[in-house]
Input
Amino acid sequence: PDGINLEGGSDASISNETELADALTMCEEAKLSLAQFDASSESCDANLVEPYEAMCCPGAAKDPCTFCPGGFEITETSLFGDEAETMTMCEEAKTSYGGFEADSAFCRKEYMEVMCCPTPPEDPCSLCPDGIKFNEDYAIMFNETELAEKMIHCQSEVKYAKMFETNSKYCQDTLVNEASCCGTPVEETCSLCP
Output
């Protein structure tokens, strides 16, 4: 990169002079800090440097991560708010992802694309196929209001999971919610201070 330039950077949330000044300061500090390390060291690893490059030197990506290349199609907004809020979030995501290389670990865009330009899955991920329920040992830890909040959280997780393919990483990751949302009995309980 030729230098710090926040014009059209990946941080689409910068909206005023103060935020711009803060972002420039952060970029300058990051540049000075990273200059202390050898380019081949672990401290100069792409996982550490790339997020700064995406924000501080836009246009640095040679093969940018593409996000919803065919445009946005907002069909499900309940997780992000109303349609306008979801559209704003999608526009910010498109800008942010565009700062990363297509083969980057930071180009994990499927989590947002299901909200901004969904492709209906052929084999939808199924979380709590028998319905949402709480084990007694789990439910006893919460009052009525907290349990109602847990139910809303689980309903969102179930709805979101259905937007992904069964063999997707997100589907595998979301199965951690089975114990708390589906009342799935555990084979061997996790113990603290056995």
